[in-house]
Amino acid sequence: MKPIEILHQYQLKRTSCREGILSVIINHNEALSENEIRDQLESHYDRTTFYRAFKTLIESKIVHKIVVDNQLVKYALDNHITQKKEHAHFYCEACHAVLCLETTPLPKPNLPNGFQANNFEYVIKGLCKKCSPKA
């Protein structure tokens, strides 16, 4: 899906900054940090413009955040856009990549009666295929 189509689908005003952010995310096979996204835009936008556009995309549930730990957050297109089912994410401790594990089923949380889960995240940490020692 193209950035223009996504913005139209979510009835958001088309701006070059929003399109740029979405293009960067779409063109990468892994989740990216805010800084990685901003660096790909080659400083075409001031900080305020970038953060306002970024915040709008998150609030509109076009982009979702993947919290790896209290110091690292990455972003990817939301499952509603990609048509992916709920899935786990893998964080490589060597190269710091965050990848979707679409074929890894998520364990459902066993909650006490009266509790309802609206959202949960599952992040597996270790070494990716590129960074694992060769066996």
In short:
The chain has 135 residues and is of the alpha+beta class.
Q: Biggest sheet: strands side by side, in what order?
A: 4-3-5
Please outline the major beta sheet: 3 strands, mixed
**Helicity range of the residues?**
25-40%
Q: Which strand-content bin applies to the residues?
A: 15-25%
> Using only CA atoms, what is the Rg?
16 Å
Q: Strand-and-helix sequence, N→C?
A: HHHHEEHEEE
Number of strands: 5
> What oligomeric state do the depicted chains represent?
single chain
Q: Kindly, what is the distance between the CA atoms of the first and last residues, rounded to a whole number of angstroms?
A: 39 Å
Q: Based on CA inertia axes, which overall geometry fits? A: globular
Q: Count of DSSP helices?
A: 5
Give the averaged pLDDT, no decimals. Answer: 88
As residue ranges, the low-confidence spans are none
Structural class: alpha+beta
